[in-house]
Automatic annotation (TrEMBL):
Organism annotation: Falsochrobactrum shanghaiense
Record-annotated HTH lacI-type domain positions: 4-58
Keywords of this entry: DNA-binding, Transcription, Transcription regulation
CDD domains registered for this protein in UniProt: HTH_LacI, PBP1_GntR
A Pfam family it matches: LacI
PROSITE patterns, A to Z: HTH_LACI_1, HTH_LACI_2
Domain of life: Bacteria
Protein name from the UniProt record: LacI family transcriptional regulator
GO molecular function: DNA-binding transcription factor activity; transcription cis-regulatory region binding
Length: 339
């Protein structure tokens, strides 16, 4: 079936082709009456305009580029859901690219996305290659870096300090009376936020005269299956820990199943702690300790700042917004609650 043309939309609305074009891209000098007539005609005819072609004249599309490292982890799906909610009603549309935690792939994704002339770009993390950072600095559009605040943002920054998150969890677990800590993690050379949490955790242990009695770190990306395998290996070879800190909740969930398989009581014998506060932790047979990060809220706020930064408000907007994750020790009974 032949696609309807802009000329046909203009004829159906009783306006010139130029007016129809300007009405469809939201030009301010077109009357509301004309906009309504053109919009109604376009809808009736099933006309879909070429936004990229319109961008040649406006120097901007209605796209907000979003760059995330993975879609296999529910965390980033929730971030995208927040971004979608934040853009609702704005006329902007999110498009996303996946980097697989690869700096070279991130450079290609960001370079290609910028070639589409997006209105703004939302990028996960603060660590970028030198050439990638230069691309973002020279983009002349709002740049919003999310999820992490441990570093030097280009413009806007929304997230949490992962180093502090690791420190706070270590303080909470020490306060719960745990002293023999193991660590289970994955792909720390790529998942830099998990690596920062581990460093923060170790900093507090060192100050307390402690260190990890055992560590098991794999190069693969996180999963419950990987967490279970690494935990079984640790329990079979290491002095028995009374707490295991995991790079995230996926890994920690696997660790719980490993302990159940080995007959290790959680949390009495081993307290299991993760990060993210995923919904799945509420369905586990034992509630694990975790840090709950407001990732959907981060995404929603990033989208709203992207939209506001396209107006005259840009210079007055807050440049950095830092969230504090909420820690829960799951089914562990705090000593002061036992009295």
């Amino acid at each position: 079936m032949r696609k309807p043309t802009l000329e046909e939309v203009a004829a159906a609305a009783g306006v010139s082709k130029m007016t129809a074009s300007r009405a469809l891209r939201g030009a301010a000098d077109v009357s509301r009456e004309s906009v309504l007539k053109v919009s109604r005609a376009a809808e009736q005819l099933g006309y879909v305009g070429n936004r990229l072609a319109l961008a040649l004249s406006s120097q901007r599309t209605n796209l907000v580029s979003v760059v995330v490292p993975s879609m296999s982890n529910i965390v980033f799906a929730e971030v995208l859901a927040g971004i979608s909610a934040g853009l609702e009603g704005s006329g902007m549309q999110a498009v996303f690219g996946i980097t697989d935690y690869d700096p070279l792939k991130e450079h290609v994704v960001i370079r290609d996305m910028l070639s589409w002339q997006p209105a703004a770009i939302i990028v996960t993390g603060l660590e970028h290659g030198e050439e990638t950072r230069r691309l973002l600095e020279q983009a002349k559009i709002p740049v919003i870096e999310i999820m992490d605040t441990d570093g030097y943002p280009i413009e806007f920054n929304i997230g949490l300090s992962h180093g502090v998150a690791g420190e706070e969890m270590a303080h909470a677990l020490l306060g719960a009376g745990r002293r023999k800590f193991g660590y289970v993690g994955s792909a720390l050379d790529k998942d830099l936020r998990a690596a920062k949490r581990k460093l923060g955790f170790e900093k507090v242990l060192k100050a307390a005269g402690l260190s990890f009695i055992a560590q098991s770190i794999a190069p693969e990306f996180s999963s419950a299956a990987l967490g279970k395998r690494l935990t079984l290996e640790m329990l079979a070879t290491a002095p028995e820990p009374d707490c295991i800190y995991y790079s995230n909740d996926d890994m920690a969930a696997g660790g719980l199943f490993a302990c159940m398989q080995k007959g290790v009581a959680v949390p009495d014998q081993v307290l299991i702690a993760g990060f993210n506060g995923l919904e799945l932790t509420a369905a586990l047979p034992v509630k694990i300790a975790t840090s709950c990060s407001p990732r959907r809220h981060m995404g929603e706020m990033a989208a709203r700042i992207a939209c506001r930064a396209l107006t005259d408000e840009r210079a007055t907007l807050t440049r950095r917004i830092v969230f504090t994750p909420e820690i829960t020790l799951g089914d562990h009974a705090m000593p002061d609650k036992q009295a």
